[in-house]
Write a structure and sequence with these properties.
Elements: H1 8-21, H2 24-31, H3 35-49, E1 72-79, H4 86-99, E2 102-108, H5 114-120, E3 144-148, E4 151-154, E5 178-181, E6 188-191, E7 200-204, H6 217-224, E8 229-235, E9 241-247, E10 254-256, E11 259-262, E12 265-268, E13 271-275, H7 286-293, H8 298-302, E14 306-310, H9 324-332, H10 338-352, E15 358-362, H11 369-376, H12 386-401, H13 409-415, E16 422-425, E17 432-433, E18 436-437, H14 453-457, E19 463-465, E20 472-474, E21 477-479, E22 500-505, E23 510-514
Parallel strand pairs: 1-2, 4-5, 5-7, 13-14, 14-15, 15-16, 19-21
Antiparallel strand pairs: 1-8, 3-4, 6-7, 6-20, 8-9, 10-11, 11-12, 13-22, 17-18, 20-21, 22-23
Helix pairs in contact: 1-2, 1-3, 2-3
Amino acid sequence: MPSKPVPVEQLKKVWQANLTSKNPTQAARNLGMPRATFTHQLELAEKWAGQNPSEINGVLDPTQIPTATGNRFILTSAQSGTQIFKPFWENLLVFADHIGAEIHVSRFRYNVSAQQAKQSKTDDVATNAQWYAKEVLPYLSDDRLRLCDGLVWAGDMNIMPTATDPLSGMDSFTGLDSCIFPHAKIALKSIATALDDPRKKNYTTGTVTLSNYIKRKAGQKAEFHHAYGAALVEIDEDGDFFVRQLNAGEDGSFFDLDVRVTNGAIERSEIAALSAGDIHARNIDPIVKEVTWGDGGLVDTLRPANQFFGDVLDFESRSHHNTLFDSYDLHCRGKDCVDSEISETFECLKYLSRPWSTSYIKKGNHDEHLERWLREANFKTDLVNAPFYLEAMAAKLRSIKEQNKDFDMLEWALARHGDLNVEFVPRNKTISIAGIDMAQHGDLGPNGSRGTVRNISKTGRKANIEHSHSAQIFDGAYQAGTSTKLEMSYVRGPSSWSHVHIITDTHGKRQMVEIKNGKWRARS
């Protein structure tokens, strides 16, 4: 049941009492009320002070969510009793002015008891402090706000900064709308929706305030993942929105696509790598292919020094997942020849590669379907593929006899169609660029387990992976989406697939870039 509204005059008294005493227990005693009641009313008073009339009674009326005006927003958060990180804040102001964006700062509280402060053995922990850095006060945004159709800013959400997964339990919080939550970590999660519904994602912002945690397990874990950051929202004339998270380094500098902001100056960013969503050449989405790798597209604009491709071979022609009906359908469409699919993959890779960028093919589970087919198929009952099968089997057996540990079946198969400007990355190899491991596909986890963004995040090394076709950020692991068509024959029921690539700059900071309606950024 909704709590009983508290009169504004009472909120003013609570607010003033707390400011005067700076001690909730003493303030509650001065007002003659239980401390729990005082604490509850103080929370409401903070919202009153932040101009939140629709939420004074602690219950938000969804019909009262206002709609923002404008087409550029920078959303971030600030912790109570904590100063801002000035280099980042100043760069953020410069960037906002450069792109004409409104800045919105949501406040969150991290209460520290006197006993906890004593146990922390530090002097920099704010004890039950309710003040906020003066720099953010003109930009306070503690209300929920509809930024555009399909995207909501949950400025009223107060998630503890020590939450390991700040997006946990928030999947359906805003229905079909994507949502941005204020929090000190940077996280992203793709939410499964019906195939005919818009792709939904939840994001967190990072923060503009300094790291300020209790020196105990939860606090120290949170401190490790504390991120100076913000979420940038662009809305174009078509009504399409693009959300990109800004993640600052220790000097407060950050990048967004082809722009880098450092020491208050706007420069051109240098992109070290593009980690593309899974390729699956035969089933690559033609729009994603053109927007990303076509003339003047994302790759030609950002000019990444390296490109990483996962699951380049779909192996639809003879996948072990194919049913009898799938196989007959492929036969009727002339799509059941393995060597023809290898040729299609070769031509696709030629289109994706650039002479000024080193391209890598990461070993993935779909690429390995080729060797599984060799192990399990019977060429005598598959005359369409018998010649290629026998040739490939001979090459594989020859490599074993010669103890050629570097033999790669996909590399051999593609080389039959010509030269490619690519490097093949074997399993268990690390390729570190700007401090990020780019070599893992994401299908294999620790100790033989199935790979997930969560268990790969625990391996101690930051990583860019793919595999699940669903974009996600969890701690130090970034997972790209897919470059394929979103509606494939084996996709049944709600899906979290989306067209998302990862770009990494030369300073080791990363950003998700979503392809939406034939665009990779808002059309100006």
